[in-house]
From TrEMBL:
UniProt xrefs under PROSITE patterns: PROK_CO2_ANHYDRASE_1, PROK_CO2_ANHYDRASE_2
GO BP terms in the entry: carbon utilization
Native species: Paraburkholderia ribeironis
Record keyword Protease present: no
InterPro entries listed in its UniProt record: Beta_CA_cladeB, Carbonic_anhydrase, Carbonic_anhydrase_CS, Carbonic_anhydrase_sf
Main enzyme class: lyase
Documented EC number(s): 4.2.1.1
Cofactor info, note text: Binds 1 zinc ion per subunit.
Protein name per UniProt: Carbonic anhydrase
Catalytic activity: hydrogencarbonate + H(+) = CO2 + H2O
Family: Belongs to the beta-class carbonic anhydrase family.
Function of the protein: Reversible hydration of carbon dioxide.
Key words of the record: Lyase, Metal-binding, Zinc
UniProt cofactor(s): Zn(2+)
Protein backbone atom coordinates (compact mmCIF):
# COMPACT_ATOMS: atom_id res chain seq x y z
CA UNK A 1 0.00 0.00 0.00
CA UNK A 2 2.92 2.33 0.69
CA UNK A 3 4.09 1.89 -2.92
CA UNK A 4 0.60 2.76 -4.17
CA UNK A 5 0.36 5.91 -2.03
CA UNK A 6 3.82 7.15 -2.89
CA UNK A 7 3.13 6.43 -6.55
CA UNK A 8 0.25 8.91 -6.38
CA UNK A 9 2.59 11.52 -4.96
CA UNK A 10 5.21 10.82 -7.62
CA UNK A 11 2.60 11.16 -10.37
CA UNK A 12 1.35 14.42 -8.88
CA UNK A 13 4.82 15.91 -8.65
CA UNK A 14 6.50 14.58 -11.81
CA UNK A 15 3.90 13.43 -14.36
CA UNK A 16 0.80 15.55 -13.79
CA UNK A 17 2.34 18.73 -15.25
CA UNK A 18 2.78 16.86 -18.56
CA UNK A 19 -0.86 15.72 -18.58
CA UNK A 20 -2.52 18.82 -17.14
CA UNK A 21 -3.90 20.11 -20.47
CA UNK A 22 -5.04 16.64 -21.52
CA UNK A 23 -6.92 16.08 -18.26
CA UNK A 24 -8.52 19.50 -18.64
CA UNK A 25 -9.92 18.46 -22.04
CA UNK A 26 -10.90 14.98 -20.84
CA UNK A 27 -12.89 16.49 -18.00
CA UNK A 28 -15.41 17.63 -20.61
CA UNK A 29 -15.72 14.41 -22.64
CA UNK A 30 -14.04 11.14 -23.58
CA UNK A 31 -13.75 9.63 -27.04
CA UNK A 32 -11.91 6.32 -26.69
CA UNK A 33 -11.37 4.28 -29.83
CA UNK A 34 -11.75 0.90 -28.17
CA UNK A 35 -13.33 -1.06 -25.36
CA UNK A 36 -10.51 -3.19 -23.95
CA UNK A 37 -11.72 -6.23 -22.00
CA UNK A 38 -9.06 -8.01 -20.02
CA UNK A 39 -8.32 -9.86 -16.80
CA UNK A 40 -7.98 -8.31 -13.34
CA UNK A 41 -4.52 -9.89 -13.07
CA UNK A 42 -2.02 -7.36 -11.70
CA UNK A 43 0.56 -8.37 -14.30
CA UNK A 44 -1.61 -7.22 -17.21
CA UNK A 45 -1.40 -3.43 -17.59
CA UNK A 46 -3.23 -2.34 -20.78
CA UNK A 47 -1.96 1.25 -20.92
CA UNK A 48 1.63 0.08 -20.49
CA UNK A 49 1.36 -2.74 -23.03
CA UNK A 50 -0.33 -0.58 -25.68
CA UNK A 51 1.52 2.67 -24.90
CA UNK A 52 -1.81 4.43 -24.52
CA UNK A 53 -2.69 7.61 -22.65
CA UNK A 54 -5.67 8.84 -20.61
CA UNK A 55 -8.75 8.89 -22.82
CA UNK A 56 -7.50 6.27 -25.31
CA UNK A 57 -9.07 3.12 -23.85
CA UNK A 58 -12.38 2.33 -22.20
CA UNK A 59 -11.30 -0.61 -20.06
CA UNK A 60 -13.29 -3.41 -18.46
CA UNK A 61 -11.47 -5.86 -16.20
CA UNK A 62 -12.67 -8.94 -14.37
CA UNK A 63 -11.42 -12.35 -13.29
CA UNK A 64 -10.70 -14.33 -16.45
CA UNK A 65 -11.75 -11.60 -18.93
CA UNK A 66 -15.20 -13.20 -19.08
CA UNK A 67 -18.36 -11.90 -20.74
CA UNK A 68 -21.62 -13.54 -19.70
CA UNK A 69 -23.70 -14.10 -22.85
CA UNK A 70 -26.93 -12.23 -23.40
CA UNK A 71 -30.46 -13.43 -24.04
CA UNK A 72 -32.20 -12.70 -27.34
CA UNK A 73 -33.59 -9.56 -25.69
CA UNK A 74 -30.08 -8.36 -24.82
CA UNK A 75 -30.25 -9.04 -21.07
CA UNK A 76 -27.10 -10.40 -19.49
CA UNK A 77 -27.20 -13.94 -18.10
CA UNK A 78 -24.58 -12.95 -15.54
CA UNK A 79 -23.36 -9.82 -13.79
CA UNK A 80 -24.88 -6.55 -15.01
CA UNK A 81 -21.54 -4.76 -14.74
CA UNK A 82 -20.11 -6.31 -17.91
CA UNK A 83 -23.32 -5.81 -19.89
CA UNK A 84 -23.51 -2.18 -18.78
CA UNK A 85 -19.93 -1.50 -19.87
CA UNK A 86 -20.63 -3.03 -23.27
CA UNK A 87 -23.80 -0.98 -23.73
CA UNK A 88 -22.14 2.24 -22.64
CA UNK A 89 -19.11 1.68 -24.87
CA UNK A 90 -21.19 0.87 -27.97
CA UNK A 91 -24.21 3.13 -27.54
CA UNK A 92 -22.76 6.18 -25.80
CA UNK A 93 -19.04 6.24 -26.54
CA UNK A 94 -19.56 4.65 -29.96
CA UNK A 95 -16.27 2.78 -29.90
CA UNK A 96 -15.13 1.34 -33.22
CA UNK A 97 -13.32 -1.62 -31.70
CA UNK A 98 -13.69 -4.13 -28.88
CA UNK A 99 -10.66 -6.19 -27.85
CA UNK A 100 -10.86 -9.24 -25.60
CA UNK A 101 -7.40 -9.87 -24.19
CA UNK A 102 -6.46 -13.03 -22.31
CA UNK A 103 -3.04 -13.86 -20.92
CA UNK A 104 -0.66 -16.62 -19.90
CA UNK A 105 -0.56 -18.12 -16.41
CA UNK A 106 -4.10 -16.92 -15.71
CA UNK A 107 -5.31 -18.03 -12.29
CA UNK A 108 -8.90 -18.17 -13.50
CA UNK A 109 -7.99 -20.50 -16.35
CA UNK A 110 -5.96 -22.70 -13.99
CA UNK A 111 -9.02 -22.99 -11.74
CA UNK A 112 -11.29 -23.89 -14.65
CA UNK A 113 -8.80 -26.42 -16.00
CA UNK A 114 -8.18 -28.22 -12.68
CA UNK A 115 -11.78 -27.87 -11.45
CA UNK A 116 -10.44 -27.32 -7.95
CA UNK A 117 -13.34 -27.86 -5.54
CA UNK A 118 -11.21 -27.32 -2.44
CA UNK A 119 -11.29 -23.55 -2.77
CA UNK A 120 -14.31 -22.33 -0.86
CA UNK A 121 -15.27 -19.53 -3.21
CA UNK A 122 -18.88 -20.03 -4.34
CA UNK A 123 -19.10 -16.68 -6.12
CA UNK A 124 -15.90 -17.34 -8.03
CA UNK A 125 -17.15 -20.82 -8.97
CA UNK A 126 -20.35 -19.35 -10.39
CA UNK A 127 -18.44 -16.67 -12.28
CA UNK A 128 -15.99 -19.11 -13.86
CA UNK A 129 -18.96 -21.01 -15.29
CA UNK A 130 -18.73 -18.58 -18.23
CA UNK A 131 -15.44 -20.22 -19.25
CA UNK A 132 -16.84 -23.75 -19.31
CA UNK A 133 -17.43 -23.68 -23.07
CA UNK A 134 -13.73 -23.00 -23.58
CA UNK A 135 -12.84 -25.98 -21.37
CA UNK A 136 -15.25 -28.15 -23.37
CA UNK A 137 -13.61 -27.12 -26.65
CA UNK A 138 -10.14 -27.79 -25.34
CA UNK A 139 -11.18 -31.28 -24.26
CA UNK A 140 -13.09 -32.19 -27.43
CA UNK A 141 -11.44 -30.13 -30.18
CA UNK A 142 -7.91 -29.64 -28.90
CA UNK A 143 -5.75 -26.53 -28.50
CA UNK A 144 -4.80 -23.85 -30.98
CA UNK A 145 -1.17 -24.28 -29.96
CA UNK A 146 -0.17 -27.63 -28.43
CA UNK A 147 3.20 -26.23 -27.35
CA UNK A 148 1.55 -24.22 -24.60
CA UNK A 149 0.76 -25.40 -21.09
CA UNK A 150 -2.82 -26.73 -20.80
CA UNK A 151 -4.10 -23.71 -18.85
CA UNK A 152 -2.58 -21.39 -21.47
CA UNK A 153 -4.20 -23.45 -24.23
CA UNK A 154 -7.47 -22.90 -22.38
CA UNK A 155 -6.76 -19.19 -22.01
CA UNK A 156 -6.44 -18.76 -25.77
CA UNK A 157 -9.63 -20.67 -26.50
CA UNK A 158 -11.38 -18.67 -23.81
CA UNK A 159 -10.66 -15.45 -25.70
CA UNK A 160 -12.51 -16.84 -28.73
CA UNK A 161 -15.45 -18.04 -26.62
CA UNK A 162 -15.81 -14.61 -25.01
CA UNK A 163 -15.84 -12.98 -28.46
CA UNK A 164 -18.74 -15.28 -29.31
CA UNK A 165 -20.46 -14.26 -26.09
CA UNK A 166 -20.05 -10.62 -27.13
CA UNK A 167 -21.88 -11.36 -30.37
CA UNK A 168 -24.93 -12.53 -28.42
CA UNK A 169 -25.58 -8.89 -27.47
CA UNK A 170 -27.94 -7.48 -30.13
CA UNK A 171 -26.29 -4.05 -30.11
CA UNK A 172 -22.88 -5.62 -30.72
CA UNK A 173 -24.19 -7.95 -33.42
CA UNK A 174 -25.94 -5.07 -35.20
CA UNK A 175 -22.87 -2.84 -35.18
CA UNK A 176 -20.54 -5.61 -36.32
CA UNK A 177 -22.91 -6.56 -39.13
CA UNK A 178 -23.14 -2.91 -40.18
CA UNK A 179 -19.34 -2.66 -40.32
CA UNK A 180 -19.26 -0.03 -37.58
CA UNK A 181 -17.62 -2.25 -34.96
CA UNK A 182 -14.69 -4.67 -35.11
CA UNK A 183 -14.07 -7.41 -32.54
CA UNK A 184 -10.54 -8.66 -31.93
CA UNK A 185 -8.99 -11.37 -29.78
CA UNK A 186 -5.59 -10.75 -28.23
CA UNK A 187 -3.42 -12.81 -25.88
CA UNK A 188 -0.54 -11.57 -23.73
CA UNK A 189 2.43 -13.77 -22.81
CA UNK A 190 3.64 -12.50 -19.45
CA UNK A 191 7.00 -14.31 -19.60
CA UNK A 192 8.08 -12.72 -22.89
CA UNK A 193 6.04 -9.50 -22.87
CA UNK A 194 4.71 -10.32 -26.35
CA UNK A 195 1.14 -9.54 -27.37
CA UNK A 196 -0.55 -11.85 -29.88
CA UNK A 197 -3.62 -11.34 -32.09
CA UNK A 198 -5.91 -14.09 -33.32
CA UNK A 199 -5.83 -14.63 -37.06
CA UNK A 200 -8.83 -16.46 -38.50
CA UNK A 201 -6.98 -17.57 -41.64
CA UNK A 202 -4.29 -19.44 -39.71
CA UNK A 203 -6.54 -20.23 -36.73
CA UNK A 204 -3.76 -19.17 -34.40
CA UNK A 205 -2.53 -16.30 -32.26
CA UNK A 206 0.31 -14.46 -34.00
CA UNK A 207 2.71 -12.05 -32.34
CA UNK A 208 1.99 -8.38 -32.98
CA UNK A 209 5.32 -7.23 -34.40
CA UNK A 210 5.64 -4.30 -36.80
CA UNK A 211 4.74 -6.35 -39.88
CA UNK A 212 1.72 -7.86 -38.17
CA UNK A 213 0.62 -4.46 -36.89
CA UNK A 214 0.75 -2.99 -40.41
CA UNK A 215 -1.43 -5.82 -41.74
CA UNK A 216 -3.95 -5.31 -38.93
CA UNK A 217 -4.11 -1.56 -39.51
CA UNK A 218 -4.51 -2.05 -43.26
CA UNK A 219 -7.48 -4.36 -42.67
CA UNK A 220 -9.10 -1.84 -40.34
CA UNK A 221 -8.59 0.92 -42.90
CA UNK A 222 -10.18 -1.13 -45.67
CA UNK A 223 -13.24 -1.80 -43.53
CA UNK A 224 -13.61 1.90 -42.77
CA UNK A 225 -13.89 2.82 -46.46
Amino acid sequence: MRKLIMGIVEFREKMLPQYAKQFSKLALAQTPDALFITCSDSRVVPDLLASTHPGDLFTMRNVGNLIPPATAEGASTGDLSEASAIEYAVLVLKVANIVVCGHSECGAMKAVHTRNAKLKAPNLDRWLYHANNAAFRLEHEGPLDDRLKPHDQLSQLNVLVQLEHLMTYPIVHQQVTAGALVLSGWWFDIATGDMYAYERTSRSFEVIDRAMAERMIARLASRAR
